[in-house]
Amino acid sequence: NLPKSTVTSTTTSANPGLIDYQKSDFPFSDQIVQNLKKIFHLNTFRLCQEGVINAAMDRRDIVCVMPTGGGKSLTYQLPAVMGNGLTVVISPLLALIWDQVRALKEIGIECVMMTGATSTSEQNEIYERMKAGATRYQKEIRLCYVTPEKVSKSKRLISTLEKVNEAGRLNEAHCCSQLGHDFRPDYKKLSMLKTLFPRVPIQAVTATLSSKTLPDLLKILRLGPITDGSSAKTTGTVFFSAPLFRPNLHYKVLSKPSNAKSAIAAMGDWIQKNHQDQSGIIYCLSKKDAETVAEELREWSGGNIKTGIYHAGVEDYEKERIHVRWREGKVNCICATIAFGLGIDKGDVRYMSKSLEGYYQETGRAGRDGQDSDCVLFYRGQDAARLSSLTYGDVDGSSKLQEMLRFAQDLKTCRKVAFAKYFSASAHLSASAWDAPDALSSSTGTTSTCGICDNCMRSPESIITKDVTVESWKIMKIAQFVQSEGGRVTLANLSDLVRGLGGGLFGVVGGGEGKKGKRRLNGEKERVDLEALGGKITLSKDDTEALLIHLVLLGYLADSYHATAYSVNVYIIASDTAVRLTRLKLQDVEAGRSVKIECTFPVPEPKRTKAKKGKRASDSDEEDEEEDEDHGSVDNDGDT
Ligand code: ADP
């Protein structure tokens, strides 16, 4: 079933018999350029657009990895309007569907969409039009946008497509995977496309692809083995990738105050200082967060920051209204969950994500016009607990979260290099895919630094790497003690305990027997004898939290999940690896007779004298010591 090339004239001179799809001398090349100008009003191709369009015109199966905002849609829209026939675009994101259908209609292209919200009478009309093709009265539908759910659930859609195919008018199926790894069950059913329509080419476009994803993607869509777009074999799936790093995106991680009010003020401050009246998106962890942040930010700014809310729980008509208000500039700061789709042409703020893929996707929505934009992650160690409970139950959720935390905690590695390392785990997406479009064939495996992210711009004096072996030993000892007593601690509890706060108390789980043979009640408090365990540690609250996460990432500490009917609580436990260190005596550890653990911390900025009035968020961290609100448990109210 591998679609074969029908182009025989254009082969690469260096590799006879192979096709270089990046060239511009195909029989259809002139027509492509004419349509680019006439229909899409664009002058030149970007990145690997031309190569993908050439391969699509050659009716090949294609996998195309291009950054968000890179211009993936043109690679299927342009071939769709050339010649005759219907192209089906399958996208999980309603926002993308709306936006593209609106934009295509504006330039006079016949296109329709079928989603859960399409009425039966509209659907009837669409099916009839699909079957009829071009008639005296109506133009042919060129693109039909559907969700994966629609394809997997609607027998009528499939039988209509079969009829269109029998009439020789089914051109291509395009699958836009936004979160490459989020293969939901409906996505898996897309395998039926190749079975039902073996001769219809499939083009899969995505912005995120890593080692695990490519084979999955090929398997799910039943695509043949990969062949490189610049020297493609005449059979197989043609693979294209464009540099994934966008030099106009400035990545930075900022420390988020632990208290919710101060966090809002910190964000508001940052927005007003850096992007007054500009557009931005704040991605939040849950629907509830998106609503709270929107409201509090509006209040904090006295209405200067015009916020809007966008998540899966917002009704469709309301979503459309927000889109319009956003485009008109009546709303300039959208507080959203990942449900806020693509097709958004600008954005300059962000918040926190559960995986690097997600983070890359979300930030990709910034600066689509090519202008400089900021992608800011407001992070503190405590967020890890919330994220952990949100990823509970996701396949690979915790390993992906660890990568995200590693990124957030990293004060040294260039953000671009960090992305490259993560995504280049794929054999087909080399590290240099972040730099060069022809990375596949000329991979050197290295990535140059971006020079514009926080870590590239950071002065060496602003961070300090400390030997924290002794502190780590104490932390692990305390965690082990709590466990041995049948207790449970969240990250925030543990951070307090090790610093000698909170009276040294921790809660125990009911049922078991304590040391003195006494039966335990649920929630009963026990006390840590800090002196017996080596004494407290003297790091600041922020540094302690950072160290705890560092120890989780090193595998000395681990998350332990406890699901209740309404929430998932995440506790911190000492892992088996901790024993390697804690079986040593404190004196031995102090004398350096153990593995060495190092951690890099930011050097605190010199303290400003406290202003009497109008306290600024950034000053408030010290005062927040006892004000923690988030102790690692969240309502699982859905995160999209
Ligand atoms: P993606 O789907 O990769 O996230 P889009 O296809 O939505 O990105 O394109 C992002 C933006 O880039 C859109 O505003 C689009 O009009 C613009 N664009 C796409 N291709 C070109 C091009 N060749 N020249 C100029 N602008 C382009």
TrEMBL record:
Residues 53-227 form the Helicase ATP-binding domain. Its main location: nucleus. It is found in: Nucleus. GO terms for cellular component: chromosome; cytoplasm; nucleus. One of its GO terms (molecular function) is metal ion binding. GO terms for biological process: double-strand break repair via homologous recombination. It catalyses: Couples ATP hydrolysis with the unwinding of duplex DNA by translocating in the 3'-5' direction; ATP + H2O = ADP + phosphate + H(+). Residues 620-630 have a biased composition (Acidic residues). Its EC number is 5.6.2.4. Residues 263-412 form the Helicase C-terminal domain. Keywords: ATP-binding, Coiled coil, DNA-binding, Helicase, Hydrolase, Isomerase, Metal-binding, Nucleotide-binding, Nucleus. Belongs to the helicase family. RecQ subfamily. This is ATP-dependent DNA helicase. The chain holds residues 159 to 798 of 956 of the full protein.
